[in-house]
Amino acid sequence: MFLEELGKIEEEAGRELREADSQDKLSSWHTRYLGRKGRLTSILKSIGALSLENRKEVGSKANQVKERLSLSFSQRKDELSCGPSLREDVDITLPGRPFTYGSLHPTTKVLREICTIFSGLGFGVVEGPEIEEDYYNFEALNMPEDHPARDMWATLWMENGLLLRTHTSPMQIRIMERASPPIRVIIPGRCYRYEATDATHESMFYQVEGLAVDKGITLAHLKGTLTEFSHLLFGEERKIRFRCDYFPFVEPGMEMSIECLSCQGKGCRTCRGSGWLEILGAGMVHPRVLERVNIDPEVYSGFAFGMGVERIPMLKYRIDDIRHFYADDLRFLAQFR
Ligand SMILES: [Zn+2]
């Protein structure tokens, strides 16, 4: 009878001990089983009433159970006081997990590079609003209401007649309204287009605008500035080319291309066989744009340029789809650490 009782006590005590998950529960367990009035203690006390033979057997069994429970109790106590790190099911010999580091977005990196280069050439850095008025985005840039060139920019209009700027050029007007020449600034920022997206078109992208206005500014100044910029960003050995192009707010207008980074000018898929990659549009500020902001085109002249920012890391790192940039896929972004 006593032996049976001892087996039952050991089983129950073991189960309750595993379930005890706080020091309070642990000490109440100790009182219940091993304390002065505990279940095991009362059996040990009543052994004296047994026959000599039974006394020996029950006594030794009871002492074994007591020893085992005491040992389990102190182990459990250690587990609870050391926390989970020393539990048996945690392998403390496993190597630690490495920290994950963030990194700058490829667009941010190139933007900073561009700003650093132009700061070195004496240009200030200015930012402007992404929500614009028709006046700044089109009209003041020599594109009145029914001007066909407005179609060059698929525009996102808002219900109140405002729009999301389609390029950073509206800031040319805002700056010339506020400041008088000499002016030398670049304007980095987001632009928006109402477009179906594909590998080379996104509805949101970055541009950097540049503007210089002073007495005696010529096309040579523009070419010199852009040549220096290209040398610093793409290397001095990289050939560049200027060709005529049309933008309503410059006259004459031109585009600048660099020798293809993939094929070194021999012709490949990236450059569509031409050996050249267009990097930016530029030109001399149109006299009518200057008149609009009350700068006398007989006295002052200026140049302006605008470039798409994502295109540069796309060419540099051979990224084949502009949509990767803002899809927030860490597998893509982590490559630029
Ligand atoms: Zn090529």
Characteristics:
2 domains, BirA Bifunctional Protein, domain 2, alpha+beta, 337 residues, single chain, three-stranded antiparallel beta sheet
Task: Describe the secondary-structure layout.
Layout: H1 2-19, H2 23-33, H3 39-46, H4 52-82, H5 106-120, E1 124-125, E2 131-132, H6 134-137, E3 156-157, E4 163-164, H7 170-178, E5 183-192, E6 204-215, H8 219-234, E7 240-245, E8 250-259, E9 276-285, H9 287-292, E10 300-308, H10 311-316, H11 330-333
Parallel strand pairs: 1-5
Antiparallel strand pairs: 2-4, 3-4, 5-6, 6-10, 7-8, 8-9, 9-10
Helix pairs in contact: 1-4
Zinc ion binds next to loops.
> What is the CA-CA span between the terminal residues?
73 Å
- Low-confidence spans: pLDDT under 50, at least 5 residues? none
Give, in order, the helices and strands. HHHHHEEHEEHEEHEEEHEHH
Q: What's the story with the biggest beta sheet?
A: 7 strands, mixed
* Residues in β-strands, percent: 15-25%
Briefly summarize what is shown.
This protein is an alpha+beta fold and 337 residues long.
